[in-house]
Amino acid sequence: MLEIASMGVAVVTVAACAMAPTYTAPSSGDKAELIVRMRIGADEHFSLEVYDDAQACKGRKKVLASGDTGQSIVTSLRANALSTVNFYESRGNSQCDMYGSFFPKANRSYVLDTLMAGGSCLMRVMDVTNPKAPRPEPVVRRKKEATGCTPLSQDEVATLEAANPVSARPTMDDFKSLLPKK
Asked: Rounded mean pLDDT of 157-178?
């Protein structure tokens, strides 16, 4: 069964993974900006990965990990296609290993926020193209398997895509900042 986190929030608690090759952002075609902010303590270890094959959770690539400079990064994702991210964090005896999929749209900006607290984990995706009116992005929580996450069926991908249609046409939300203030 497909679960869409209606507020763009995925909360899970699970186990760890090994490091992957480094991610290279797309250099051509439709792109979406991904801004990653991690709240990580000095005694914690973390990694953020994306998948070449987002539907099957295969071909993982490292975006950011423990030991990298800073805990924030701005990169690009292929737009108008399913993207799957994996966030892993460990602190003492607690671990988070979360998988989430969403459909980034061309020329949009997204923030991936993560947090590990009280034995629970949070990963949410927000569309911040208009920073004065951020909107939660629908995220599908994926289940962990030995080599990644459970693949999505074509029907599940279609359900997610229908919940988050890709459109090059602007909506009224794109023009809110131009309207006179009340």
From this structure: 60
